[in-house]
Design goal:
By secondary structure, this protein is an alpha/beta fold. Helices cover 46% and strands 13% of the residues. The protein has 8 helices and 6 strands, in the order H-E-H-E-H-E-H-E-H-H-E-H-E-H. It has helices at 12-34, 56-65, 84-97, 122-136, 156-170, 172-178, 193-203, 214-220; strands at 43-45, 70-73, 100-107, 140-144, 181-185, 208-211. The protein has a 6-stranded parallel beta sheet, covered by helices on one side. The chain starts with 11 loop residues before the first helix and ends with a helix.
Length: 221
């Protein structure tokens, strides 16, 4: 008997079906339990329809048309400008449409193989993210370390965790003054759950939290 056919090691298809089954059951339970207490918010990430090439105003119009509750702008290129005036206009439209907007960006780890200096150094990139988040009225600023490739580099993921922690600490005051929680995502196999918790605790849980991507968790596992 092949290992993948063993009852103790299900095939990828069976494993995926079981995960989906548990997720569906969990959602049903959540809906039933919360139906009388609080609303379960529905929204989308602009990354999911990125092929359309829409900027922030068009995405807000689309979100309003489909009556979603929340919207994540997971990159900084979605904005036509990072000027305070433009960000204020986005904030006003978000408030008008009664949508919860969360701001985000990509990798902010300077030693990661996937880091890009398009927005300057890692620190400058993170400071820009905080500015944008505050400007558009987002209470969180989503970002990530890197990818599974970083685990295979010299020093392993620990080296990159340390770099990310140091970058986060440099913007602590700006984040606290702005009332922004920096939400580090478990991204593309970079950190598992215990490592992400450790990063948050060492950087400072008073201004650093987590963005949980359940798809990435399943894929990494």
């Amino acid at each position: 008997m092949k290992l993948c056919e063993s009852p103790f090691f299900p095939t990828r298809r069976k494993f995926t079906q079981s995960i989906l089954g548990m997720a569906t059951a969990g959602m049903c339970t959540l809906s039933a339990n919360e139906s009388n207490s609080k609303k379960l918010l529905l929204g989308f990430d602009n990354f999911s329809i990125r092929a359309l090439g829409w900027k922030a105003p068009r995405l807000l119009e689309y979100a309003s048309k489909h009556k979603v509750d929340a919207l994540l702008f997971s990159d900084l290129d979605v904005y036509e400008s990072h000027d305070n005036g433009y960000l204020r206009e986005i904030r006003q439209e978000v408030k008008k449409q009664k949508i919860i907007l969360h701001a985000g960006t990509g990798g902010i780890c300077p030693t990661s193989k996937s880091f890009k200096d398009k927005h300057g150094t890692a620190e400058e990139h993170l400071r820009l993210l905080i500015k944008v988040a505050k400007g558009v009225g987002s209470s969180v600023a989503r970002c990530y370390l890197g990818s599974s490739k970083d685990r295979k580099t010299e020093g392993g993921i620990r080296r990159h965790m340390d770099s990310t922690i140091q970058t986060l600490k440099k913007v602590r005051k700006q984040a606290l003054d702005a009332g922004i929680k920096i939400a580090v995502e478990n991204h593309a196999g970079d950190m598992h759950s215990r490592e992400l918790v450790e990063l948050i605790e060492q950087a400072g849980p008073e201004f650093v939290g987590a963005t949980i991507d359940t798809g990435n968790s399943t894929w990494t596992m």
